[in-house]
């Protein structure tokens, strides 16, 4: 076996050992197909108030600008599909990815371990770990690495496990064997487009971020426009509608990452509990959670928007 194939195999089996769902690798090069798409999306102001999306345009498309002399982008998926969901059907809803410990911490830790493994097993390899917090087009790299295709709801989809997983990358200066993209299996299905409560999927494969419930409940710092009243389908943090209705998600299986398990009281909270939530309860239930991003005041604003006059 040639060294490239041997290193690739070792990296993939270590990724599996660390609990990643799958691992795909592609050549670190300029994302030619993504450039015009990203430019058009930004020009149409579909990022709303997410001004950070305008920054580092070149870095978003070219990994060699993020890691000197980079050769490979290792894309990894980590399942977060929960075994249990919120009990009260009337309670305001929380996106499933935010049930447990903030994924940034969980994944960063695993990526560090993977990089350390590569350095110990292979030698002097330099690289950086990325989890959704740097200018990296996660979904594009995952699709290029054969981990799935980008669906009509603009999420990465896979036939085996649907889409309830996080995407992360290691960009390293080591040549490896590269995977090839898979074909699109959305077919004529429009379930996600038909179900989106705010019509944020403006055409197949294009999501207007500034109309998405996740954007309003997490990214938007100002008041939520009144014109969206009664359109949130009871979501107070994020939204899973376009994933919940996706036929491929009938293959989702519960994750086995203990850190993604929610605090039991989170699932037990009733509509009344949420309406009366205090700073103290918020701090306890969301101690190391991604929900802390909205802060207590943001979550309260979202709940008020759902039930206020």
Automatic annotation (TrEMBL):
Gene that encodes it: queG
Official protein name in the record: Epoxyqueuosine reductase
Ligand binding (cob(II)alamin): 60, 132, 153, 156, 167, 214, 239-240
InterPro entries registered for this protein in UniProt: 4Fe4S_Fe-S-bd, 4Fe4S_Fe_S_CS, QueG, QueG_DUF1730
NCBIfam families attached to this UniProt entry: tRNA epoxyqueuosine(34) reductase QueG
Localization in the cell: Cytoplasm
Binding positions for [4Fe-4S] cluster 1 per the UniProt entry: 186, 189, 192, 246
Essential cofactor(s): [4Fe-4S] cluster; cob(II)alamin
Catalytic activity of the protein: epoxyqueuosine(34) in tRNA + AH2 = queuosine(34) in tRNA + A + H2O
Originating organism: Aquimarina atlantica
Subunit structure: Monomer.
Pathway assigned in UniProt: tRNA modification; tRNA-queuosine biosynthesis
Residues reported in the UniProt entry to bind tRNA: 221
UniProt KW keywords: 4Fe-4S, Cobalamin, Cobalt, Cytoplasm, Iron, Iron-sulfur, Metal-binding, Oxidoreductase, Queuosine biosynthesis, tRNA processing
